[in-house]
Amino acid sequence: MDTKTDNELDSELSLMTPKRYKVLLLNDDYTSMDFVIDILMNVFHKNYQQAEVIMLEIHRTERGLCGVYSYEIAETKVMQVHKLAREQGFPLKAVMEEE
Ligand code: TYC
Questions:
Q1: Which domains, from first to last, does the chain contain?
Q2: Does the beta carbon of 57 sit less than 6 angstroms from any atom of ligand 1?
Q3: Which atom of ligand 1 is nearest to the CA of 31?
Q4: pTM of the full structure
Q5: 96 in Cβ contact with 18 (< 8 Å)
Q6: CA distance 36 to 70
Q7: Element (H, E) at 9
Q8: CB of 53 shorter than 6 A to ligand 1
Q9: 74 in ligand 1 pocket by Cβ < 6 Å?
Q10: Ligand 1 centre and the CA of 37: distance in Å?
Protein backbone atom coordinates (compact mmCIF):
# COMPACT_ATOMS: atom_id res chain seq x y z
CA MET A 1 0.00 0.00 0.00
CA ASP A 2 1.21 3.49 -0.86
CA THR A 3 1.47 5.20 2.50
CA LYS A 4 2.66 8.79 2.64
CA THR A 5 4.61 10.06 5.60
CA ASP A 6 3.35 12.97 7.67
CA ASN A 7 6.12 15.10 6.15
CA GLU A 8 5.06 14.18 2.61
CA LEU A 9 1.43 15.02 3.39
CA ASP A 10 2.47 18.32 5.02
CA SER A 11 4.55 19.33 2.02
CA GLU A 12 1.78 18.37 -0.45
CA LEU A 13 -0.71 20.45 1.53
CA SER A 14 1.65 23.41 1.66
CA LEU A 15 2.16 23.21 -2.12
CA MET A 16 -1.64 23.33 -2.57
CA THR A 17 -2.14 26.27 -0.22
CA PRO A 18 -2.03 29.66 -1.89
CA LYS A 19 0.50 31.99 -0.26
CA ARG A 20 -0.75 35.17 1.44
CA TYR A 21 0.99 38.53 1.30
CA LYS A 22 1.09 41.39 3.79
CA VAL A 23 0.81 44.89 2.38
CA LEU A 24 2.63 47.50 4.49
CA LEU A 25 2.86 51.26 4.21
CA LEU A 26 6.22 52.92 4.95
CA ASN A 27 6.73 56.17 6.82
CA ASP A 28 8.26 59.25 5.20
CA ASP A 29 8.59 62.91 6.21
CA TYR A 30 6.47 64.45 3.42
CA THR A 31 3.19 62.55 2.96
CA SER A 32 0.38 64.20 4.93
CA MET A 33 -1.31 62.29 7.72
CA ASP A 34 -4.71 63.01 6.13
CA PHE A 35 -3.62 61.49 2.81
CA VAL A 36 -2.44 58.28 4.54
CA ILE A 37 -5.80 58.06 6.35
CA ASP A 38 -7.60 58.49 2.98
CA ILE A 39 -5.49 55.69 1.46
CA LEU A 40 -6.22 53.37 4.39
CA MET A 41 -9.97 54.05 4.07
CA ASN A 42 -10.26 53.96 0.26
CA VAL A 43 -7.73 51.28 -0.73
CA PHE A 44 -7.70 49.10 2.40
CA HIS A 45 -11.34 49.61 3.48
CA LYS A 46 -10.57 50.71 7.06
CA ASN A 47 -12.95 52.98 8.96
CA TYR A 48 -11.68 56.38 10.13
CA GLN A 49 -10.74 55.18 13.63
CA GLN A 50 -8.86 52.13 12.34
CA ALA A 51 -7.10 54.24 9.70
CA GLU A 52 -5.94 56.79 12.26
CA VAL A 53 -4.50 54.07 14.55
CA ILE A 54 -2.59 52.45 11.65
CA MET A 55 -1.31 55.79 10.31
CA LEU A 56 0.01 56.80 13.76
CA GLU A 57 1.63 53.35 14.17
CA ILE A 58 3.48 53.84 10.85
CA HIS A 59 4.48 57.39 11.86
CA ARG A 60 5.93 56.03 15.14
CA THR A 61 7.51 52.72 14.00
CA GLU A 62 8.32 53.44 10.29
CA ARG A 63 5.95 50.79 8.88
CA GLY A 64 2.55 49.28 9.47
CA LEU A 65 0.31 46.44 8.30
CA CYS A 66 -2.61 47.46 6.10
CA GLY A 67 -3.96 44.03 5.12
CA VAL A 68 -3.18 40.47 3.98
CA TYR A 69 -4.18 39.31 0.49
CA SER A 70 -3.48 36.91 -2.37
CA TYR A 71 -0.45 37.83 -4.54
CA GLU A 72 -2.55 39.51 -7.26
CA ILE A 73 -4.69 41.56 -4.87
CA ALA A 74 -1.63 42.64 -2.82
CA GLU A 75 0.19 43.69 -6.01
CA THR A 76 -2.85 45.70 -7.13
CA LYS A 77 -3.09 47.49 -3.74
CA VAL A 78 0.60 48.47 -3.92
CA MET A 79 0.09 49.85 -7.46
CA GLN A 80 -3.05 51.77 -6.40
CA VAL A 81 -1.17 53.40 -3.48
CA HIS A 82 1.73 54.44 -5.73
CA LYS A 83 -0.57 55.83 -8.44
CA LEU A 84 -2.71 57.87 -6.00
CA ALA A 85 0.39 59.15 -4.15
CA ARG A 86 2.12 60.14 -7.41
CA GLU A 87 -1.01 62.00 -8.56
CA GLN A 88 -0.98 64.05 -5.32
CA GLY A 89 2.81 64.57 -5.34
CA PHE A 90 3.48 62.47 -2.22
CA PRO A 91 6.41 60.01 -1.93
CA LEU A 92 4.33 57.44 0.01
CA LYS A 93 5.54 53.84 -0.54
CA ALA A 94 3.83 50.50 -0.04
CA VAL A 95 5.54 47.11 -0.01
CA MET A 96 4.33 43.51 0.00
CA GLU A 97 5.87 40.63 1.99
CA GLU A 98 5.05 36.95 2.06
CA GLU A 99 3.17 36.29 5.32
N1 TYC B 1 5.34 61.03 8.85
C2 TYC B 1 4.29 61.71 8.12
C3 TYC B 1 4.12 63.15 8.66
O4 TYC B 1 4.60 63.44 9.74
C5 TYC B 1 2.96 60.99 8.19
C6 TYC B 1 2.99 59.63 7.55
C7 TYC B 1 2.38 58.54 8.18
C8 TYC B 1 3.60 59.44 6.31
C9 TYC B 1 2.37 57.28 7.59
C10 TYC B 1 3.61 58.16 5.70
O11 TYC B 1 2.96 55.87 5.73
C12 TYC B 1 3.00 57.11 6.34
N13 TYC B 1 3.44 63.99 7.90
A1: 20-98 (3.30.1390.10)
A2: no
A3: 8
A4: 0.92
A5: no
A6: 22
A7: helix 6-16
A8: no
A9: no
A10: 10
